[in-house]
Structures are given as C-alpha cells and as structure tokens.
C-alpha cells in the first residue's frame, strides 16, 4: 500500500507555476480606492433619496399627526427600497463586486442588511396604515381592509410584505439551524417575487415618484441596473458558459475515507479564466440534483485539460457527490473569490489549511510564483493517513523546495488550533518557530470558520499585518 | 471604507441633507405650495409671496434664514384676508353643490357657499384620496378661500387630488 502510493506521487504532474507576480502595497491601495468609490456611491443613493424627500417638503409638510405619519411612511419606504436593491445586488454574485470584496464579504454584508431593510419596510407599512386610518376617520379595521383591498396595487404590496417577513424569519440563525439549506433556499428565492410585487404600488400610489422626472429617472435606472446585473450574471452567464465549456464529470477519485476528488472535462478550457484559490458553484445536472448548487474550490491549479474539486462528505448532498457518475453534465457558476495570488504583497508566503480546507491551498501551492524556500505550507489534520491531498501537497513541496509542516493529532486545548505537543506553549510562539518569517509573509488560511478565527488570532499576536492575512469565510 | 473617505462621505452627506432641508423649508414657506412645477400663482396672498419664491430657488442656506420674516408676513396677510372675508359675509349668501369628480384615487364632491363674490365656506361632501392624500383637503379649502377660486398652485405629492378638487370647485362656482 505504501509502495503503491509512493509510486503514484512520483507520477504526479503539476502545472508550470506562475512566472512572475506583482508584489507590494500599491495594488491594495488601488483596490481600496475603488472600494471607497463604490461604497460612497451606495451611500450617495441614500443621501439622494433623503435629499429629494426633504426638498419636496417631506419635513416641512408635517402639520399634524396624520401628515407626520405620512412623512414617516414616505421616508422609510424610500430608504427601504434603496437598501433592498443594494441588498439584492450584493448577493447577485456580480463579478465587479466579487473582484473587489470577495464573495464572502459581499454575502456577509447582504446578511447584515436583511433585518434593517425588513424593519424599514414594516415601519413604512405601519406608518402608512396609521396615516390612512387617521385621514379616513373610519374604524381601524375598516380602514385597513379598504387600504389593502381597495387601493390600487396595495393587495400585492401587502403580499410582498408577508413574503419579506417570511424570508427574513427563515434566515434567522435559529431557523437556519432547523431548516435544510434547500428549504431555506426555496423560501429565499421568493424574495425576488417579494421585490417585484412591491414595485407597482411605488409607482402608482407612492408620492415620491409619479410626476417627478428626476426621481422617476433615478428609481427606474436603479431598478434596471440591479435587474440587469442579476439576470446577466446569475442567470444568463452560467447558462452561456456551460454551453461554451460543456463541463462533465470525467472521473472520481477517493482521497480519504470522507473525501473525493471530482475531475471535470469539457471544451475551451484555455479560456476558463479561473485562478488558483477561487471557487465555483457546482450544479450537477441530474433529475434530483439540478436545482441544488454547492460551492467548491478548485483543488488543482488551472490547466487546459481538467477542473478538479475535492469534496468532503458532510452527510448532506456532499454525500451524493462522493459517488457521482462519470459523464454527468454539470454547470459551473463562477469563478468567485479573492483568495488568490492577486492579493499577495510579499515575497514570502505561508499557506495554512485544515482538513477539507486543503483544496485552495493545494492549488495555490501549485501555481504561486516562488523560488525554493519562499513558501511554507502548514497542513492541520486529524491523521496523516486519512488527510485529503496530503500526499500531493507533500510531493509538491518536495519538488518546489517549499517547507511542508503536517500538524497531526488532537489539539491541546479549546483555544488552540495546533495539536498538543505537551509543552503548553501558545500557538503564536509555536507558529513563529515553524515559520520564523510568518510576520513578513502573506498568510493564506482555509479551514472551518472557528478554526480559521483562532489561526487569525495567533497571526495577529505574532505580528502579521492585517492586510497580509487572507482568509475566505464560508458564508452560506 | 477607509477612515478619511468615511469622514468625507459623512460630511458631504450631512451637508447635502441639511441644504435640501433648507430648500424644502423655503419652498414650504411659500404658503405651503410645495411642488416646483406649480402653476403661476394668480391670487392675492400667493402673489405677495411671489418675489420670495424666486429667492427660494437659490440653494444657499443663508437666503433661507433671511426669508423667515417673510413667512410671518405671508401668514399675517392670510389672516388679514380672512378678516375681510368675515366682513363680506354680512351680505346675502348662497350655496351650490358641485358635480362628483372621479379621479385616480377616488372621487371628490363639494359644496361652495358664496357671500357676494367671496367664497365663505367650502364643504367636502365626498373627499376620497388614498395613502394620506386626504390630508390635503383642509389645505385645499383654505387656499381656495384665499384665492377665491381655483387659481392656486398644486400641492406636492397630491397633484391629482388637487386637480380633482379644482375641477369640483370650478363646477360648483359655475353654477352661481
């Protein structure tokens, strides 16, 4: 068995690594500048709608409780709609956002915006309802029924509100734990319906769009911009790309007792445009699985003959992927993520992986531009015999002259990310011993979220600057 | 966002918001006629406000602070107009009912009481509007009385309601 695997490693073929890489802080500053520009623009839209509301006499028009509620209803509606569109754009997997922030940060911001948007929408509903009841002078029930059923477009707008509440409630942490990803996903898809159902009443009944050319122009273009981005990048691009590349499963290869590599072939792979460290969202086209998408990092550097994912078996759909049949067609959405050499600023690099976090580290180690000794790979596993891609990483490091440090065994205490070595020394001290120049290197970390946070903490303690720490959160 | 960009954006944002608040206040002080696309005012109290209206178009904050006294003037003139209305109401009065005007958000019908040539009372018989636009009817009534007819501007956010009100008012006035 041992002889056989040794034979396999000597046969391994790796791609030619990148010849050169641009280092230094300059490129980071350029990224930050563009980020600032985009964020300022997002804030500017909020300022714009507020300013137009004020110019229109939104506050001055308040003369009694009824007009106060009217103004509250209008302003909350304007802010909610604007934030809702930003919220949707953030999750549209738009390449220009992804390239700047990474899919994880965009998704986290999307999550953070969810509740505030809903609160604003509910505030808008309540304020408008109170205003309607006050001005109509009927009983509350009668007025509400009339508002919802008689007023133009208001019934579907109310349906939209109910849907939005449903979407946010199912996304709360306690609900996410109880719901399967797929159940949550289906509910979440309804948020598109919720947004669309709310559009008519904004234009027909709303006081801030109809008859106001500047505001009409603003809102129509904002809606169109978001809609085109979503349709283009989330719907059309994956379809066209899968027609162009024709991905299908070529072979599967068991890597450990609970992980499998899936090899994909297709055409035109020289045009793929994926970088080591990035991930695709994989959609297997079988009758049962086509609607369920899963994110996986490529586990071998980009090449012209195959795309490889290494998939851990976590008991859900990933269990089915362990036995996927060769020849099955798949759609890849992406590539996404900024866990790439583009973010590298220093000559020295430390790559740190744990368990099934190995794939992007493996592809980075294969393709990064480096001289022997420039890169250290730290791989944290339970047992060496059952670690996915361990043999490949070891062989890669041997051939390229990188340090390879396999950390095996149970961890010492709950706050440590390293195995117990009986000395009780803090992680950052041990890290500095393994890779003495860790504070002068770019550090790429991939592993489970809690583990990653512990690693980042000890990196900070060992003096590695924040913008040299690269970690991709699994934000799902 | 980097710290200094954050500060810059915050400062600019607050600046824009306060300036637009000032503009909103300036527009509103022109006897509550909020829309920028309003018709040229034709009646007495609105006409006195006309010179300040052009000033309101300027966007500086300074000018709005200058304008505050004129707000009081306008309202005192309104009060004066009301007084004259009361005096005139000693004469014989008649009441006419308008046709029902249907529009986008419902229908409007009103009755107008005139004393001589002066409108003294407008009563809403049907005052339908949606989403808070109903709040403008009291204002519309007071503008109509001040203007002694339908020659006053639109109310921002309630253009359709204003038009319906004016149509009803004209139909009632046509019956005198």
Write a concise synopsis of the structure shown:
The complex is a heterodimer of chains A (476) and B (176). Chain A is an alpha/beta fold and 476 residues long. Chain A has helices at residues 2-11, 26-55, 65-90, 95-136, 140-149, 154-171, 173-178, 181-204, 213-245, 317-321, 358-367, 390-400, 427-434, 449-461, and strands at 248-256, 259-265, 279-284, 293-297, 307-312, 330-336, 349-354, 375-381, 403-408, 442-446, 469-471.
Notes on the structure:
The complex is a heterodimer of chains A (476) and B (176). Chain A has 476 residues and is an alpha/beta fold. Helix content of chain A is 52%, strand content 14%. Chain A is built from 14 helices and 11 strands. In chain A, helix 14 (449-461) links the parallel strand 10 and strand 11. In chain A, helix 4 (95-136) packs across helix 6. The longest helix of chain A is centred in the N-terminal third of the chain and has 42 residues, at 95-136. Chain B has helices at 3-29, 44-57, 61-88, 137-147, 159-173, and strands spanning 93-97, 101-103, 106-115, 118-127. In chain B, strands 1, 2, 3 and 4 form a 4-stranded antiparallel β-sheet that branches. At the A-B interface, helix 2, helix 3 and helix 4 of A face helix 1 of B.
């Amino acid at each position: 068995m041992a002889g056989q695997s040794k034979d396999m490693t000597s046969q391994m073929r790796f791609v030619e690594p990148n010849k050169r890489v641009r280092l230094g802080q300059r490129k980071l500053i350029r990224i930050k500048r563009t980020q600032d520009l985009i964020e300022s623009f997002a804030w500017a839209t909020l300022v714009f709608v507020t300013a137009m509301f004020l110019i229109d006499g939104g506050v001055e028009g308040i003369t009694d409780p009824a007009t106060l509620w009217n103004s509250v209803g209008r302003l909350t509606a304007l802010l909610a709609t604007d934030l809702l569109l930003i919220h949707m754009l953030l999750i549209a997997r738009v390449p220009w956002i992804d390239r700047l922030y990474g899919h994880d940060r965009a998704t986290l911001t999307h999550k953070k915006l969810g509740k505030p948007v809903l609160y604003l929408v509910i505030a808008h509903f309540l304020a408008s309802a109170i205003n309607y009841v006050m001005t109509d002078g009927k009983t509350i029930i009668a007025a509400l029924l009339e508002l919802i059923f008689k007023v133009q477009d208001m019934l579907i707008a109310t349906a939209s509100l109910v849907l939005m509440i449903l979407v946010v409630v199912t996304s709360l942490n306690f609900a996410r734990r109880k719901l399967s990803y797929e159940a949550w996903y289906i509910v979440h898809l309804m948020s598109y319906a919720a947004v669309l159902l709310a559009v008519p009443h904004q234009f027909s009944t709303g006081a801030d769009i109809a008859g106001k050319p500047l505001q009409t122009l603003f809102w129509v273009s904002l809606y169109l911009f978001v809609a085109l981005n979503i349709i283009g990048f989330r719907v059309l691009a994956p379809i066209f790309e899968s027609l162009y590349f024709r991905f299908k499963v070529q072979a599967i290869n068991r890597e450990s007792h609970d992980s499998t590599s899936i090899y994909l072939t297709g055409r035109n792979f020289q045009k793929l445009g994926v970088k080591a460290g990035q991930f695709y969202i994989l959609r297997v086209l079988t009758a049962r699985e086509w609607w369920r998408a899963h994110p996986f990092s490529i586990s071998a550097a980009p090449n012209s003959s195959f795309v490889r994912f290494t998939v851990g078996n976590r008991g859900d759909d990933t269990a089915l992927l362990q036995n996927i049949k060769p020849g099955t067609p798949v759609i890849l959405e992406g590539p996404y993520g900024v866990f790439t050499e583009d973010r590298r600023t220093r000559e020295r690099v430390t790559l740190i992986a744990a368990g099934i976090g190995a794939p992007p580290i493996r592809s980075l180690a294969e393709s990064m531009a480096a001289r022997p000794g420039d890169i250290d790979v730290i791989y944290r596993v339970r047992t060496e015999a059952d670690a996915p891609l361990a043999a490949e990483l070891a062989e890669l490091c041997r051939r390229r002259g990188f340090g390879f440090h396999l950390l095996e065994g149970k961890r010492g205490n709950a706050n440590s990310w390293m195995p117990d070595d009986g000395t009780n020394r803090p992680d950052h001290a041990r890290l500095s011993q393994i890779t003495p120049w860790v504070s002068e290197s770019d550090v790429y970390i991939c592993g489970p979220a809690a583990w990653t946070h512990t690693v980042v903490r000890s990196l900070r303690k060992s003096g590695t600057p924040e913008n040299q720490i690269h970690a991709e959160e699994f934000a799902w | 966002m980097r710290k200094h960009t954050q500060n810059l954006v915050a400062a600019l944002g607050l600046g824009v918001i306060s300036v637009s608040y000032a503009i909103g206040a300036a527009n509103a002080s022109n006897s509550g006629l909020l829309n920028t696309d309003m018709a040229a005012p034709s009646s007495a109290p609105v006409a006195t406000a006309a010179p300040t209206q052009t000033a309101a178009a300027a966007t500086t904050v300074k000018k709005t602070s200058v304008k505050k006294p004129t707000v009081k003037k306008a309202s005192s003139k309104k009060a004066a107009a009301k007084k004259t209305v009361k005096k005139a109401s000693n004469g014989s009065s008649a009441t006419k009912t308008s046709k029902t005007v249907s529009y986008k958000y419902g229908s409007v019908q009103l009755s107008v009481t005139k004393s001589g040539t002066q409108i003294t009372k407008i009563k809403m018989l049907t005052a339908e509007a949606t989403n808070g636009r109903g709040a403008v009817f009291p204002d519309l009534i007071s503008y109509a009385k001040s203007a002694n007819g339908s020659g006053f501007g639109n109310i921002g956010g309630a253009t359709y309601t204003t038009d319906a009100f004016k149509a009803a008012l004209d139909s009632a006035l046509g019956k005198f």
